[in-house]
């Protein structure tokens, strides 16, 4: 093995470790979604995934992978948004997974809040304390929104921090949670290479509906355009690599899929 081949192998292994770490944070974000949805008593479709850093397009219905982005603070950031009396309420979470010898410890925080919750595993029931804390923050935020606006001036949508901000002007529709733009770390989140669902089928050998299911579940990077999906080719290849490594420890291939 040449030295450049050795470096390539190390880089490939490191990319795979990043993918597994990112996948772990995805699982934690999904558990947060399930826990908060149950706690509030709303349907899964009523709680949306929204990116809180980087580019945001209100015309896109984001998946977990599309909304989950790494900031410059070693946390992954993702927003969960629901509607209250016709206005959006967005909770900006930040999460991090710390690998340990036998299990992983997860850290969950809220933007601009000092409190950090620590948990293990991905059981939504274990995240109830996070939901209780968020619920109290939202109640206080709504109750004090008028006083905060009177003190700060401007419009509610321009306040420095608020979960709930009514929009009084129909000419200027609400844009979820304005945060300063921050660059994502290229090593953790490579630039997406978007391909169509049909191209993803050709690469993976999966049935088209299975590819769409992976996109809906947030297991591969994807954004929705109209009735179909654009797939992140890099994320799909990492997913296939992970599946193949698992298949080598089992007997028999798992592809192609037929629903």
Brief characterization of the structure:
The protein has helices at residues 3-40, 64-67, 128-143, 145-152, 197-204, 208-216, 233-247, and strands spanning 48-50, 69-70, 76-84, 87-99, 104-110, 116-120, 194-196, 222-225, 228-232. The chain is of the alpha+beta class. The strands form 2 sheets. Strands 1, 2, 3, 4, 5 and 6 form a 6-stranded antiparallel beta sheet that branches. Strands 7-9-8 form a 3-stranded antiparallel beta sheet.
General description of the model:
Helix 1 crosses helix 3 (128-143). The chain has two domains: 11-158, no CATH class; 194-247. It has helices spanning 3-40, 64-67, 128-143, 145-152, 197-204, 208-216, 233-247; strands at residues 48-50, 69-70, 76-84, 87-99, 104-110, 116-120, 194-196, 222-225, 228-232. It is globular, with a radius of gyration of 20 Å. It is of the alpha+beta class.
List keywords for this structure.
single chain; 259 residues; alpha+beta; 6-stranded antiparallel beta sheet; 3-stranded antiparallel beta sheet; 7 helices; 38% helix; disordered C terminus
In percent, how much strand structure appears in the residues? 15-25%
The class by helix and strand makeup works out as alpha+beta
Radius of gyration: 20 Å
**Molecular shape:** globular
Low-confidence stretches: 154-162, 164-191, 249-259
SSE series: HEHEEEEEHHEHHEEH
Count of distinct strands: 9
Distance between the termini: 43 Å
Percent helix, as a range, is 25-40%
Number of helical regions: 7
Q: How many domains in all? A: 2
Largest sheet, described in full?
6 strands, antiparallel
What is the average per-residue confidence, as pLDDT, rounded to a whole number? 76
């Amino acid at each position: 093995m040449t030295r450049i081949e050795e470096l390539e192998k190390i880089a490939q292994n490191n990319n795979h470790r990043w993918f597994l770490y990112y996948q772990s944070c995805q699982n934690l974000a999904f558990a947060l979604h399930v826990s908060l949805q149950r706690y509030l008593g709303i349907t899964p479709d009523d709680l949306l995934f929204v990116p809180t850093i980087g580019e945001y397009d209100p015309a896109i219905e984001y998946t977990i992978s599309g909304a989950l982005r790494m900031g410059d603070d070693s946390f992954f950031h993702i927003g969960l948004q629901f509607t209250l009396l016709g206005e959006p309420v967005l909770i900006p979470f930040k999460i991090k997974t710390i690998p340990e010898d036998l299990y992983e410890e997860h850290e969950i925080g809220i933007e601009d809040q000092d409190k950090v919750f620590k948990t293990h595993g991905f059981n939504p029931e274990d995240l109830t304390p996070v939901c209780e804390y968020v619920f109290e923050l939202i109640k206080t935020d709504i109750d004090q929104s008028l006083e905060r606006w009177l003190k700060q001036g401007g419009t509610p949508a321009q306040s420095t921090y608020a979960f709930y901000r009514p929009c009084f002007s129909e000419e200027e529709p609400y844009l979820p949670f304005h945060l300063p733009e921050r660059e994502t770390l290229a090593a953790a989140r490579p630039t997406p290479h978007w391909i169509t669902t049909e191209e993803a089928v050709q690469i993976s050998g999966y049935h088209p509906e299975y590819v769409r299911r992976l996109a809906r579940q947030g297991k591969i990077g994807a954004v929705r355009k109209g009735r179909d999906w654009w797939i992140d080719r890099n994320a799909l290849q990492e997913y296939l690599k992970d599946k193949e490594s698992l298949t080598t420890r089992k007997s028999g291939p798992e592809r192609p899929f037929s629903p």
